[in-house]
Amino acid sequence: MNTSITEDSLHGGGKAWHFNKEYISEFVYGGIDGAVTTFAVVAGAAGANADAIWVIIFGFANLIADGFSMSVGNYFAVKAERDNFEKHKKIEYWEIENVRDKEVQEIRDIYAAKGFKGELLEQVVSVITADNDVWVDTMMKEELEMTKDQKSPYQTAFATFLSFNVIGIIPLLSYLMSALFGFRGDLFAISCVATGVALMIVGYLKSEVTRTSHVKGILETLLLGGLAAFLAYLAGDVLASYLL
Fold first, then answer.
1. pLDDT 10s digits, 53-109
2. Contact present, 166 and 33 (Cβ < 8 Å)
3. CA distances for 18 relative to 15, 22, 146, 200, angstroms
4. What does the H/E/C string look like for 11-53?
């Protein structure tokens, strides 16, 4: 018997690559968006035959502005969900104190629907309603189908911002090397390859989160990035032909 298999590993808990798996979804979300949107800037600029300096300027503007915007959005989304949970929890405590008989009947109805009957049903109701905390917790899960998200809004926002910038800067590296060290070569082609590798890594992590095929996760992410790059390059090429 394989004792190394734990409940956390089956449900996706624990760590992967030293990351807390609770936050890998945010890392993947931010990483994909960072790589795709920044590479879209690079591809659009390449389509318009823009100088490398403009690629760097607009690329970094995208990293800072979009990365911050995404992290703030994630923060408020998680915080709003937790605030909503706490609001309904307070309502349940108020109902227990003020409309107790109704709440007792709701517990009875919930467990009757699960197949409990007679004396066993009344024992279950009695045990649950004897402790207000257990009672409210049961009502939150069984009646409202709500559970508290244990992820911190701050850590969620940080994971998103970090991944957006760490992965998002990869499409710009060849242009930075050119500006800082005089590197010569096909900068756009190098950016394409580097971005493809970055998207493969993020796709692998995505498959770790979803517990799906690694090959599927990598291909899906590459296709998404490739489509975004193609559209951006096409837009840059068309606009440049008309406006420049």
1. 888 998 899 899 999 999 999 999 999 999 999 999 999 999 999 999 999 999 999
2. no
3. 6, 12, 30, 18
4. HCCCEECCEEHHHHHHHHHHHHHHHHHHHHHHHHHHHCCCCHH
Measured CA to CA, the distance from residue 42 to residue 191 in angstroms comes to 8
Strand blocks (E) in 23-175: none
Q: Which residues contact 119 (CB under 8 A, 6 or more apart)?
A: none
Instruction: With beta carbons less than 8 A apart as the criterion, state whether 40 and 232 touch.
Output: yes
Q: Could you give phi then psi for residue 26, rounded to 5 degrees?
A: -70, -40
Q: Each residue of 112-155: pLDDT tens digit?
A: 999 999 999 999 999 999 999 999 999 999 988 888 877 888 98
Report the residue count for the chain: 244
Neighbours of 176 (CB within 10 A): 17
In the numeric block, the tokens 């915007």 are attached to 69
pTM assigned to the model? 0.74
pLDDT in tens, 5-38: 444 444 445 554 445 567 777 888 888 888 888 8
Q: How far apart are CA 146 and CA 79, in angstroms?
A: 15
